[in-house]
Structures are given as C-alpha cells and as structure tokens.
Design a protein that fits this description.
It is a single chain. This protein has 374 residues and is α+β, with helices and mostly antiparallel strands. It has 4 domains: 30-134, Roll (Archaeosine Trna-guanine Transglycosylase, Chain: A, domain 4); 144-229, Methane Monooxygenase Hydroxylase, Chain G, domain 1 (Up-down Bundle), CATH 1.20.58.1480; 266-321, no CATH class; 334-365. 51% of the residues lie in helices and 16% in strands. It contains 11 helices and 7 strands. The chain has a 5-stranded mixed barrel with strand order 2-4-5-6-7. A hairpin with a 2-residue loop joins β6 and β7 (129-134). The two termini are 69 Å apart. Pfam families: LON_substr_bdg (PF02190).
C-alpha cells in the first residue's frame, strides 16, 4: 500500500474517537492486516493511504462496516510481492479509519489515525489476512531521570540535524517542539530519518522505551554524520566551481585588456591553440602533462614582446618534440656483429668472444624486460 494525496472524502459516521472511553480500551482482539511497502507507519500520526483494488480493498470495506480498526504491517521482501503471512513482520501498528473514498479503478483512498503497536499472536484467516493480536505495554526500562536526560539529548541532536538539513520543514520543527512524551518523540524523530526499512522496523518492535530511544539516538547520530559529510562534499564542489568560474572571468578580462592594448593578436591565439592541441595528443606520464599544462598557462598570460614569452615557447616546443612514445625493442643481430668484428679486428678472438657474449646477454635481458622510454 502506498501513501498519496487525499481527495475530498466522505465522513464515516459512528467511528469518531470517544472522548469519554479511552481508545486503547476498545481496540479489537482481531484485525484485518494491510501490508505496506518501503517503511512502516509509526503511531501517533494521521496519514492517507491508497489501498489497491482486490482483497485488501474489500477488507477496508468490511472494516468500515465494523469497528473501523485495521493493522498496518510491513512487507519483508518487496521483490517477492506476495502479501502472505510468511512475508510480513510480526509487529505492526493499529490504525483507525477516519475517512475513505472509492477511486475509479476500485481502489480505496483512506485517511487513518495510527494509534499504537500490536503483535501478531496467530492468524485467524490468511486470505484476506486476519490475525489475533495483542497490544504490548510500553516499559520504561530506565529510571525517570535517565529517560528525561535521554529525551533532552534526542531533542538537542534533532535540532542539530534540523539546522543542517534543508529537507526539515518548519511544520516538522513545530511538531517536534510540541511532542512531550518520550515514546512519541522517539517515534516522530525516527519517522523523519532516512533509514533502511529493517532499521525502522527494529524501532517499531521496541516496546522498552530506553531501548527504543537508544536506537533512535544511534540512527540520529549516523544521519548527522552523513549530512555533515554531504555538506562538506557540497562545499568542496561549490568552491571548485567558484574557483573555475573566477578563473574563467579573469582570463576573459585579461584577454579583453590584452586585445585592447594590442599585446596579443590572432597569430598568438593560433599558436596557443596549436600548443593546446598538441597537449591533448601528448602520450606522456601524468607528471609531464601537469608540467606542460602549467607552462601552457604561463604562456597564455605572457606578453609576446617580452623575453619570457620566447623562453616559454621554446620550452614548450622542445617538450612537444621529445619522443614520449615507448621505444621499440631492438634485437641485436649477432651474426652481423661477428662479421663486423672479424672484418675490422684481426685476431683478438678472446676479446671478440667476450663482446659477442655481452651482446647475447643484452638481447636476452631486453626480451624479458618491459619496453623502456627514451
């Protein structure tokens, strides 16, 4: 099931919350279960849901005719898409249907008020899903002062995240300030974090308040660190863009001034473009490319009427003309070497043999070694 925009709905009579009898006391022992995807819904919110046509839409209709309560449970494996008893978590949230509207494709759009956690004890029916449930009581798990201190920490960290995250709306910030109960505060903060569905579900399944707040504090700390890293990366990228833009504008201004003063003409521009094209085709090590780029930058600023201009130009000409390609492996012709030695040097057989041995060893080494550079 998915959340979505709610069209004008008709009120359902007879299912408004009773102002005298506590709502918890009238929660039913059995619930129609509606599987939801991606993330669970937390207690204490009013949210729209779109239930597609089929057995779950019929379950909603049956619920409206009865007590108007249904159970929202998270799917374990969304790729499986089998909405069976084996593919849903044991803990969910009971919700009361406040309003509904039938959509043209036989789907149902409902507005629900989520109330509290429940635990599936057994299944009464599996098509559609109907379960016998219990409603675990929330346990403190820690002294009151400890819980109070943890709640303050939660509030401070949430404010820190809200200040650094533009996705936090003013409405979220106001809601956060108006929540006084530790359990509801933990649920609200968890609901606005960007977590994996298993992490959300672990909070849903935490009935001990101390454990729940500790989990949310851990998730909150990770979120703050992530936002901090994202901001740092964003600032670095922005600084780089600003620097590049500044350099571009300065270059353009310098070109305009040089053209205005007649310092540089089209001949210079052609020379610069020629060097730039050579640099692109230069097959050299990164250190060489970096050095040529640096010299090319200096060349672009140089005044053709100064000595520096000619020095840099000659240097670039030399760098570009050097053979940066890997040198071919040259194998020495030993037969030819022997004939040359015999022709030019009479006798000295031992010396000529040593020379030929040296050349033969060099041939072997060259064949085994990677190509060298000039």
């Amino acid at each position: 099931m998915e959340g979505g925009p709610l069209e004008p709905l008709e009120d359902l009579s007879g299912i408004e919350e009773n102002s005298i009898i506590p709502l918890d006391s009238i929660l039913p022992p059995e619930l129609f279960l509606i599987p939801i995807k991606s993330r669970p819904v937390f207690p204490g919110i009013i949210t729209p849901l779109i239930v597609p046509s089929g057995k779950f839409a019929k379950a909603v209709e049956e619920t409206v005719k009865g007590n108007s309560f249904l159970g929202l449970v998270l799917l374990k494996d969304e790729e499986n898409e089998k909405e069976t008893s084996e593919n849903i978590y044991q803990y969910g949230v009971v919700a009361k249907i406040l309003k509904k509207v039938n959509l043209p494709d036989n789907a149902v759009n409902i507005l629900v008020n989520t109330i509290r956690r429940f635990k599936i004890e057994s299944f009464v029916n599996k098509d559609p899903l109907v379960a016998r449930v219990s409603y675990p009581e929330e346990e403190p798990g820690a002294p009151k002062n400890t819980t109070k201190a943890m709640m303050r920490t939660l509030l401070v960290m949430t404010r820190e995240l809200a200040q650094n995250n533009p996705l936090f709306t003013e409405e979220m910030k106001l809601t956060m300030l108006n929540v006084n109960e530790p359990g509801k505060m933990a649920d609200f903060v968890c609901s606005i974090l960007n977590l994996e569905k298993e992490e959300y579900q672990s909070v849903i399944e935490s009935n001990i308040l101390k454990t729940r707040i500790e989990k949310v504090l851990l998730f909150l700390k990770k979120e703050i660190e992530l936002v901090s890293i994202q901001r740092e990366i964003s600032d670095q990228i922005q600084d780089k863009i600003d620097k590049q833009q500044r350099q571009f504008f300065l270059r353009e201004q310098l070109k305009a001034i040089q053209n205005e003063l007649g310092i540089k003409d089209d001949k210079f521009e052609k020379k610069y473009e020629k060097f730039l094209e050579r640099l692109k085709n230069l097959n050299a090590d990164p250190e060489v490319i970096e050095e040529v780029t640096r010299e090319l930058d200096k060349f672009s600023y140089a005044d053709p009427n100064t000595g520096d201009y000619n020095v840099i130009r000659n240097y670039l000409d030399i760098l570009e003309s050097l053979p940066w390609e890997p040198a071919p492996v040259r194998e020495i012709d030993l037969e030819k070497a022997k004939k040359t030695l015999d022709k030019d040097h009479y006798k000295l057989e031992d010396v000529k043999d040593r020379i030929l041995e040296f050349l033969a060893v060099k041939n072997l080494k060259t064949m085994k070694k990677a190509p060298y550079y000039y």
